[in-house]
Amino acid sequence: MKYGIVAFPSKKIQDLANTYRKRYDPHYALITPHITLKDAFDADESQIGEISKSLEEISARFAPLQIHASRISSFYPTTNAIFFRVEPTPQLESVHTSLKENINLGAPKHVFAPHITIAQKLNASEHDDIFGQLRMVGVDETDVIDRIHLLYQLEDGSWTTYETYKLTGAE
Amino acid sequence: MKYGIVAFPSKKIQDLANTYRKRYDPHYALITPHITLKDAFDADESQIGEISKSLEEISARFAPLQIHASRISSFYPTTNAIFFRVEPTPQLESVHTSLKENINLGAPKHVFAPHITIAQKLNASEHDDIFGQLRMVGVDETDVIDRIHLLYQLEDGSWTTYETYKLTGAE
């Protein structure tokens, strides 16, 4: 089964992201707007108890995530994905590293750049048009996210939450 | 904000339900296949701490839900929804009643008939055609669901999980 670990920002930020995703993101229907903390990885159902235990430990260590979606950016030319850039912080970096080290399944596909995707799978000219527009609109939202989610993927690509973990620590 | 309380069955049952929902359920993209335990209700964000506390108490009281999706049925003529009928049990009835009594927000729209919707918003002739076919195919799946989910709804109608509660009791 395929699993992933994400943080969902406030309803306000999710609603804002969806105004773009509805039009520009073919994954719109598969999952609500999120920050990926650990890329999708394969795990056996027998491993999930141990993974869940690691997540309990990690979430007991970290405080709620302070995030700032500061501008609209693009991963071009790596991919054509457009996203709300979430300012990297030592806290986010540290959560990401802890997840990577403690749940040693699946390799990170990219360097960790926290973000909320709002457009993807665009062709080159669509990307340039849409990014040109959205970059001017921009985004400036702060939020405090007090929990992280372990998700699993169904055969049609959609994601269901397996469990939530409250961030109750001090880091 | 609008909240709801559901149980997600196993990936196997969700995948099976989605083979139908993909074609026949316009809510397909808004939420993965589920059993509604408490209909959508409005609550203020300030009330959510108390609601969550009630859910912790209820989930500590009940054992994992033993379910049996026994046949494909329809709510016609009340609505044109077609669903996997989940056999009512004293346990499911008791969970539903506890949620209703302890979270006194929103009135139940219908008598509690546990089910997993696979088709809805059909016109009368579509309903008759599709129900005629699906009823013959049927369903016969059992599952043990060890957690329930509190969800909230975004402006576009999609649902995000707020929190999961593990069923750790004996009832």
Automatic annotation (TrEMBL), chains A, B:
EC supergroup of this enzyme: hydrolase
Recorded superkingdom: Bacteria
Residue positions of the active site: H34, H115
Keywords, in A-Z order: Hydrolase
Xref: InterPro entries: 2H_phosphoesterase_YjcG-like (IPR050580), Cyclic_Pdiesterase (IPR009097), YjcG (IPR022932)
Motif (HXTX 1): 34-37
Entry's EC annotation: 3.1.-.-
Residue ranges of the motif HXTX 2: 115-118
Family: Belongs to the 2H phosphoesterase superfamily. YjcG family.
HAMAP family named in the record: 2H_phosphoesterase_YjcG (MF_01444)
Protein name: Putative phosphoesterase LZ480_02365
